[in-house]
Write a structure and sequence with these properties.
heterodimer, A: about 600 residues, alpha/beta, Rossmann fold, five-stranded parallel sheet, 20 helices, about 20% strand, B: alpha/beta, Pyruvate-ferredoxin Oxidoreductase, domain 3, 8 helices
């Protein structure tokens, strides 16, 4: 039966078909659904890890023990796991080990556009680049075989467009439940899995040899294929770019590379020799192009026409081809651009009821005397209006380290690090220990919303619920900070505007060592978020001061009524959006906002 | 129906656009065509703009459409129809739910939501056909405000030479059983409205 599966669902299906026994991931758009989907299959132990390195380490341990294992992460997650990844290329595996890297060309949901095919080249292991869901499934299956055949980790590289597109997959429905069997007794190979210098030195030449053997295998493996057409033009492409190429360069010859590292040299030479002109279309970095040019093969159009940055699309491939003077159909006719109507922007905003709102409202009021070091999560929206209260943000967990360094270097302002609960467990523990150890006078605000929110609501060590639904211990952030030696700790209700402000002020007054403020309140998308009766504005009392607009709630709108003297609009609240969190009510200086006492929102 | 059909579903996070586009892709598959769809998750969804591409055809390469090739722009929100109109193929059709969702830029007073008449005039100026539906009212009439996306699909289905049963089946498979009847009604109301315009 044909079913529409997303690239991520297809990767999970392929892994299951390959008999994967253990899988681990840290959530990250666009990779998250790989594990969410895999967790549904019987016989697979699928887990959320505290971070990507832990996920890969866990998969490595499972693979050393003989299990087929998978770790999935977004592109920048591989940076976190890279230390282990590089060594795993040296150790090799026992059971197949597959790393799914979901890159984000276009940076739809990321801090950069890094091309993780570079890791395959860097780490000297193979990389498979599927172009649709059917390939995502087949390549993932194949990846386990290659891993075992050549004794190396194998990267299955997806992109946002592949991960989040659905295309038909031929699915034989999984037969009945597959039982989880214990592993056979551990086969000890300390000369293989203990990568001390002597062994690393011995392994390196073997790894170089391995790469040559994989390249030789790739010369004839069906993972790379040629679609012959008009030979006046030949296009080498891979991954999602193939889909744009086959539409834009209709009828011409295509070499579609399913494995983008290592490359099949003879196959590429042969292809180039049989076409009049050679074009290379790949998303982001010129991984294929640089190698092909280094082999002395002439390329008439590559990165100078198909940019190094941004997601490729049909339009960008067509545009590049036209600029290069290649014989493709012109850009489609378009309707007249909109000029008579101005379209207001629709930036993302903290949701109505969001537990981060009161915190950023308060922090903004201390804006002049604080520098705010942010982190990855919904609260990165603290940089947007109306809060505009974030001064730096680079990567997961970096908020605390950056705050620390800035303060230690002599910053005169109060320095506040804002970090979420999931991010705290991901990469916040070490920098907090570092701040205690080196005695920096920073304020660490942990915005504990009881979920990994930005990626759609995944559990983590602080919630104690596993990916496959088992309940266990919740690791409480306040006591963790205390055990690390933080002496000043406040835990406050996220929706109590005054309590949050009091805690911030008290933390600012601390003169030595780090302090921690845990702002506790569940994300509105969690089942344990408590909706309350909606609130409304009494327009007679409202003075149009605008203070409630400063909490940045999508439920608070400008009303048709204006203040007679100032002419400013009074506020109104959309009862369909309001969740009754009362933050606006608390900041209203004239008590014009009241609880309706009606039905729960 | 053998030729290529390109759909672009747009609106605001939380409006059920991803489900609606899933259903439209499934209908393509059920009609015996190849079908692909594509969407973007994550940061953009928090009250931001949501876009989802659906393509049907004998074969489909790219899961996203090219600007100027969209046969049906299906907008779940009035302003979003205007924002995405440039993707429409000249002579293409706009299906627009006339619901308005105020963007933060407007509610904080940095921008103005253009009047409905101006937006519709601009759409009509550019599209071969503009079909408006009051999705919220019709969904309420059908029994649940959660069925706005089904109303819109009903309207879209009327503009395509496709049997209603295929759509209904695909919709019912995706909604909770207790809302099945309301969704059937919502689909019918949407379909009737589009036939009348």
């Amino acid at each position: 039966m044909k079913r529409l599966l997303s690239g991520n669902e297809a990767i999970a299906l392929g892994a299951w078909e390959a008999g994967v026994q253990y899988a681990s991931a840290y959530p990250g758009t666009p990779s998250t659904e790989v594990l969410e989907s895999l967790a549904q299959y019987a016989g697979v132990k699928a887990e959320w890890a505290a971070n990507e390195k832990v996920a890969l380490d866990a998969a490595a341990g499972a693979a050393f023990g003989g299990a087929r294992a998978l770790a999935a992460m977004k592109h920048v997650g591989v940076n976190v796991a890279a230390d282990s990844l590089m060594s795993l290329s040296y150790t090799g595996v026992n059971g197949g080990l597959v790393l799914v890297s979901a890159d984000d060309p276009g940076a739809f949901s990321s801090q950069n556009e890094q091309d993780n095919r570079n890791y395959a080249r860097f780490g000297k292991f193979p990389c498979l680049d599927p172009a649709d869901s059917e390939e995502a499934r087949q390549f993932t299956r194949l990846a386990f075989d290659i891993s075992e055949m050549f004794q190396c980790p194998v990267m299955v590289r997806s992109t946002t467009r592949l991960s989040h597109s659905k295309s038909p997959v031929e699915v034989e429905m999984p037969e009945g439940p597959r039982e989880r069997k214990p592993l056979p007794p551990f086969e000890r190979h300390s000369d293989k899995y203990v990568i001390i210098p002597a062994i690393a030195r011995r392994r390196h030449p073997e790894i170089e040899q391995r790469l040559l053997e994989i390249a030789e295998w790739a010369e004839t493996a069906p993972v790379n294929r040629i679609e012959w057409g008009d030979r006046s033009l030949g296009i080498i492409t891979c991954g999602m770019a193939y889909q744009y190429v086959r539409e834009v360069f209709k009828g011409f010859s295509i070499l579609k590379l399913g494995m983008t590292h290592p490359l099949p040299k003879r196959m590429i030479h042969d292809f180039a020799g049989q076409v009049e002109k050679l074009v290379i279309v790949e998303e982001l970095d010129p991984i294929i192009e640089e190698q092909v040019r280094a082999w002395g093969i002439e390329v008439v159009a590559g990165k100078e026409f198909f940019p190094l940055y941004g997601e490729l699309t049909l339009a960008r491939v067509r545009e590049g081809a036209l600029k290069a003077g290649l014989p493709v159909a012109p850009m489609p006719d378009q309707v007249e651009p909109l000029s008579e109507v101005t379209i207001p922007a629709r930036p993302p905003a903290l949701c109505p009821g969001c537990p981060h709102r009161a915190f950023f409202y308060n922090l903004r009021r201390h804006r002049k005397k604080v520098v705010v070091s942010g982190d990855i999560g919904c609260y990165s929206m603290g940089v947007l209006p109306p809060f505009e209260t974030m001064d730096m943000l680079i990567s997961m967990g970096a908020s605390i380290g950056m705050a620390h360094g800035l303060k230690q270097a002599g910053a005169q302002e109060k320095v506040v690090a804002t970090i979420g609960d999931s991010t705290f467990f991901h990469a916040g523990l070490s920098p907090l220990a570092n701040a205690v150890y080196n005695k920096s006078n920073i304020v660490v605000a942990v915005l504990d919303n009881r979920i990994t929110a930005m990626t759609g609501g995944q559990q983590h060590p602080g919630t104690g619920i596993t990916l496959q639904g088992e309940e266990g211990k919740q690791i409480d952030i306040g006591p963790v900070a205390r055990a690390m030696g933080v002496e000043h700790i406040w835990e406050v209700d996220a929706w109590d505007v005054k309590a949050v402000d009091d805690a911030l002020k008290a933390a600012f007054a601390v003169e030595e060592g780090p302090s921690v403020v845990v702002v506790k309140g569940a994300c509105v998308f969690t089942p344990y978020y408590q909706r309350r009766p909606t609130v409304a504005v009494d327009l007679d009392t409202c003075t149009a001061c605008g203070n409630c607009f400063r909490v940045g709630c999508p439920a608070i709108l400008k009303s048709d009524q204006t203040h007679p003297k100032t002419g400013k609009p009074k506020a109104t609240i959309d009862p369909l959006l309001c969740t009754g969190c009362t933050v606006c009510l608390q900041v209203c200086p004239v008590d014009a906002i009241y609880e309706t006492g009606g039905e729960e929102a | 129906m053998t030729q290529q059909k390109n759909f672009l579903f747009v609106g605001v996070g939380g409006q059920g656009i991803l489900t609606a586009s899933d259903i439209a892709a499934q209908v393509g598959l059920d009609l015996g065509l190849e079908a692909k769809k594509s969407e973007v998750h994550g940061f953009a969804q928090r009250g931001g703009v949501v876009e989802s591409h659906v393509r049907w055809g004998p074969t489909v390469g790219s899961p996203t459409c090219e600007k100027g090739t969209v046969d049906f722009l299906v907008a779940f929100e009035l302003l979003e129809a205007a924002r995405w109109i440039e993707w429409l193929r000249p002579g293409g059709t706009v299906v627009v739910n006339t619901q308005k969702i105020t963007p933060m830029s407007v509610s904080v007073g940095n921008a103005v939501y253009p009047p409905e008449a101006e937006i519709l005039a601009a759409l009509k100026e550019r599209a071969g056909r503009v079909v408006t539906v009051d999705g919220l009212a019709l969904a309420e009439q059908a029994g649940t405000v959660r069925a706005v996306n089904t109303v819109v699909l009903g309207a879209l289905s009327a503009l395509l030479d496709t049997p209603a049963e295929v759509w209904e089946k695909a919709i019912i498979r995706r909604v909770p059983p207790k809302y099945a009847d309301a969704n059937r009604e919502a689909f019918r109301l949407g379909r009737e409205t589009a036939k009348e315009t």
